[in-house]
Structures are given as structure tokens and as C-alpha cells.
Amino acid sequence: MLRPEHSQRPRLVEIRDNLLDRIVEAEREGWLGELEKLHTRLAGAEDKLSQLDDEAARQANVVDLGMPSFSQITVRTTADRP
Fold first, then answer.
1. How deeply is 18 buried, as exposed, middle or buried, from its count of CB atoms within 10 A (0-12, 13-18, 19+)?
2. Is 6 helix (H, G, I), strand (E, B) or coil?
3. C-alpha dihedral (70, 71, 72, 78), degrees to nearest 10
4. What does the alpha-carbon distance between residue 21 and residue 6 come to, in Å, rounded to a whole number?
5. Residue 31 and residue 73: Cα distance in Å, rounded?
6. 31-49 pLDDT, tens per residue?
């Protein structure tokens, strides 16, 4: 499974919008065989956009805990000793 890059989001939106336009045209013209393929492709494009949005939301919730300094570590270990 390929994971889309966030930089490709505008292109995916363009593809989705194009597919929506083509679906309207296929419905208007009565191209029933084409409709199924277009709906499948639309579902794929929307799924990839959803993946990008989910990944962006996960990255927004990341918390940097930092790295403890040596002095912080030694204070803890020496304070615990009797």
C-alpha cells in the first residue's frame, strides 16, 4: 500500500474534483458502465485524502518529552539511596 505524501494533497483534491465532474457527466449521458469505475476511483482518492488528514492530526498531537540531562538522572538515583 502506498502512502501519499502531504505535498501531494492539492493534486489529490484536483483528482477528486475531476472525478466528481466526470461522474456528473456520466450520469447525464447514461454511461452506466463508466459510473462504477468512476465511483471506485473516487473512493480511492477520498481514502487517500482521509489518510493524509489522519496523519496530519496524529502529528499535531505529538508531544516532545525532551531528553533528561545527566544531572537530572543522577539526582534521582542518589536521592533514592539510604
1. middle
2. helix
3. 110
4. 24
5. 70
6. 998 999 999 999 999 999 9
0.85 exceeded by pTM: no
Residue with cell 454511461: 31
In DSSP notation, 28-81 reads: HHT-HHHHHHHHHHHHHHHHHHHHHHHHHHHHHT--------HHHHHHHHHHH-
70 exposure class (CB count in 10 Å sphere: 0-12, 13-18, 19+): exposed
CB 35 within 8 A of CB 26: yes
pLDDT in tens, 56-74: 887 777 677 777 777 766 6
- The grid coordinates of residue 70 equal 545527566
